[in-house]
Amino acid sequence: MAISHRPIPITGSEHAPAIPRGQRGSLLLVALLLVVLVAAIAVGAASLVGSGAATGADRVLGEKALFAAQSGILRISEGGLSCDEAPHGVGEGAWFYCTPPGDAGCGGDNRSRVRGWAGAEAEEDAPAVHHICVNLDAAGGTAPPSECAEEDPAWTCAFDDGDVPPGGGPGSDFENLYVAEDVTIQGGGNRTVEGEACFADGAEVNGKLTFEGNVYWETEENTSGGSSDYEACVYVAGELDDDLSSDDCDGESTLDAWCPHAGEGGSGWGYSD
Fold it and tell me: Is residue 251 within 8 Å of 233, Cβ to Cβ?
């Protein structure tokens, strides 16, 4: 019996069919493109991460500069420091100084400039700087007009509900009026405020009053028992209220202050931006 032998195919790489030259070039090009694409994605991701970190750092420095300026306003207005352009540190990595009105370039004769910065000890090297023009005599909130402390007879100042008794008719008018926080005063027939009227947060008029001068409500108008008559400009939370103001109010009688006093160019409540 004859035994036949079949050759067993050899599958080693040395016997694999050769890849055509053109096809090998295409595969090499595809591999190269994949490498370039992966590298581009990696570079883009790194750039986004770096950009986000830089933006976050800039935001933090900007906020620190603003807080430094605000801190300077509070410290100077409370009497702890002078407005003399001397630099002062605030926390870690922030500073401020104050320029008095004559050199501040803020407009008016009573506005100083407090400048805060962060990120460098010298202002000219700082990446973040913020300045605020401010009437330092008025900073710190709802302090009454200085005339109240001086007991100026031209100002009636109500610090309690009973400080201004009800009244009406001749002799019961006010030259200028200040009503402190959460205090209620009584209006009445033919009762008039001839000059400025300033109402702190929560102050109220119960009964009708006629306001011949400008009226300043620190946070909101608060009247009851009869609508008051406004014959000049009415400011609510520092903004001119056209609906309450008289028809000929042009809005130019105050400069970003809620309650001007101390004569022409006097201070007010809060500070402007």
Answer: yes
